[in-house]
Amino acid sequence: MIYLIDHQDSFTYNLAHLLENFDEVYVSNYFKINNSNLKKSSMVVFSPGPGEPKNYPESNIIYKQLKGKKKLLGICLGFQLILFNENGIITEQKNIYHGFQSKINISKDSLLFKHTKKLTVGRYHSLKLKEPFYSKEMNITMRCANTKVAMAIEDHKNKIFGFQFHPDSFLTNNGKQLIKKIISA
Amino acid sequence: MNNKEYLISLFESDKPLIIYKANQGYYIYTDFSDKKIVTKSNINTFIKKIFSPRKLRNKFFDGYIGFFGYQTCCELIGIKIPKQKNNSLSKSIFYKPQTVIKMNKKIFIKSLVPNFKSLKNLKKTHKKFYYENKFNVNISLNQYSTIFRKFTKKIKKGETYQIKICQKYRNKSKIDSVKYFWKLMEVNSSPESFLIRDKNFSIVSCSPETLFYKHKQKIFTKPIAGTLKKSSHLSKRKAKMFFKKNIKENKEHNMIVDMERNDLSKICKSGTVKISKLKYVEEYKDLYHYVSKINGKLKEKIKTIDIIKAMMPGGSVIGCPKINTLNLLNHLEKDSRNIFTGSFGYIKSNYDMRFNIIIRSLLNYKGINEISVASGIILGSKAKKEYEENHIKAKSLLDIFKE
After folding, report:
1. Does A101 reach chain B within 8 Å, measured CB to CB?
2. Which of A80, A82, A127, B161 is least buried, going by the fewest C-beta atoms within 10 A?
3. Which DSSP string do the residues of A40-80 spell out, in sequence order?
């Protein structure tokens, strides 16, 4: 089972349908966690949502508890939430991307997407990771082709992954393939 | 009395009636045997009561037609609205018709009332109508610009990605709503237009937007995002080019498409939600719209109430993400939206449904006339332009008062 924690976003169920291609998906609000299902799940996904990571203490606690124990995936706000817990700073960006289709580059460090260099993706974010960002185990593996803003992270030791963009958006080409890679990681 | 004479006397009477635009022509519903004020607490009983396994003769319309006001839509999904200026009109009202008239080139009438043409209940109205031609706007350009700046900051912080601000034009008039409706239809017969005339209020809308259409297990929605003022040298093809090249319009539209996919995904089988028509242009009297259509197949055991809660209030007139944006909106807007951005439509006894989004609407109640429109704030939009867009949207409704 995949547990999808919803931060009351209007894109969460697009993500749920995408994940349902691979496993049963359980969705709940971040303030209404079903603990027995959370225990049962093999992977936990932090959904997109409004605001910034520090607005969601419940989800931050879950991240800290599950780190290293379950596979974790964060999308958009969820991606920022992971970085926030890894001592990253989340900050406003100059150019804002809402409903924007853009090109991103995949770095050589990516173990998941070795054979791909570029992706076309849909983005909905006001905030970004402030850099430099240092982590022993977590690598930034994708960046915006124009602004170089961080777009994906991989931590293979703890099995933690994240996308700043939306694999669930119709603006992302082949989002299903991206999720498949995470599932099989 | 022939059908045409009957229809004319019906229009000129005081009798409550509803007119709803169909694919070709109009449906007129009257002789209501039941009127239900629907609230959060009685909606489940109301929906249960609609169901009827029997099939009526001649495929007669069996069900309720009416509207969910904005407040009901919010309450159903657990959103509280703080105190606002509010008229006392019931938030949601549904009617059960006994007579249905189809009007295109010919007039077809089906009625369960034996003497529905009887002159007794078709007396000419004694009401006095009057039309003021000046309107007061509840938000000035200055105020609008302030709101605009405030929300631009919130967008930069990621609290909302897009938000729609409602504006109202008010005056003191008492209108002959049927006459007004037909005048409006001459100039702007949008596909989701409707009229409700009841004893103490009337609602007229030239809404172009279908919130959803549900037939058996199939459902579709047709969100609109993107408006362009028409002019003599701007053809539909040129309008399409404009939308295609305009980054701001595209971003706004993309967001709505993903949001509507999401709302359908809540109630549809996995993998069945598909964009069937992406970004096409529809032409109206004063403007062009940028439209998409999204289909899905409902989950087997989905309840009618779940469909309503997933889809209402329609996302394209709220902003995104829905919940947080609704909360921001409700704290900012001092006037109740009343009917505006609620939904009008019907629920049949087999639970097939059609609902629109009530926009470009007029509410005539207690001698006050209220025309409501809204436009969106996203990054890259300009306060003055959005303010003017509101006026374009209200124009065909306002112009009739000048005649």
Report:
1. yes
2. A127
3. H-SEEEEPP-SS-GGG-HHHHHHHHHHTTTSEEEEETHHHH
